[in-house]
Amino acid sequence: MALSDRLAQITLPGRVAPPQNWHITFRFLGNIGAVAYERFLAGLDTSDLGDPFRVRLGSLGAFPGARKASVIWVGLSKGEERLRQLAEVCEEAAQTAGLSPNERPFHPHLSLSRVRPPQDVRRLVDQVPALGLEWRCMSVVVYRSHLGRDGARYEPLETLPLTR
Question: Residue 164 above 80 pLDDT?
């Protein structure tokens, strides 16, 4: 995998996420009941998710900031607007299902590493060039996360194809 190969050349601090855990989170639902989940899916099912589009990885960043990073991520340099549109569709479906509005603004990224305790990663963020890897986004997948001592495991529940 191209991203795995690229990351093998970079020393990331913290617990690096395995490739099977890489994803862009549009909306975290939390523990919701079956009825709310079905309403959420119905909201997505009746929404226009749009056509497939290209996404390109950009530069590294960190939450809450590079000076005291607890998460290292890679941002996007292409496809951000379409990802924002999909996040809006997911937010609308979540609110229709009865969930409270999401308090955090959507920031499209792939989380690469969790850093405990937080570290200063400004040098890393400044020195690593944009990754530039690109792919075609063809679907939206709804996952259930299982948290454990060894980190998270993600179970795909639904795949919603983008129209062609």
Answer: no
Has residue 1 got a pLDDT over 80?
no
Neighbours of 57 (CB within 10 A): 22
* Strands in 25-83 per DSSP E: 53-63, 69-78
Encoded amino acid at 114, one letter: R
Name residue 53's beta-bridge partners.
Answer: 137
Q: Spell out the residues 6+ positions from residue 77 whose beta carbon is closer than 8 angstroms to its own.
A: 56, 57, 58, 59, 130, 132
For residue 34, count other CB atoms closer than 10 A to its CB.
Answer: 7
Which structural domain, as residue segments, surrounds residue 83? 2-161
CATH number of 56's domain: 3.90.1140.10
- Render pLDDT for 104-129 as a digit per residue (tens, 0 to 9): 899 999 999 999 999 999 999 999 99
Peptide linkage before 156 cis (omega within 30 of 0): no
Question: Which tokens belong to 59?
Answer: 């530069």
Closest CA relative to residue 57, chosen from 117, 113, 128, 149: 128
Q: Other CB atoms closer than 10 Å to residue 139's CB: what's the count?
A: 11
Domain count, the chain: 1
**Amino acid type, 21:** N
Question: Quick one: CA torsion of 58, 60, 62, 67, rounded to 10 degrees?
Answer: -130
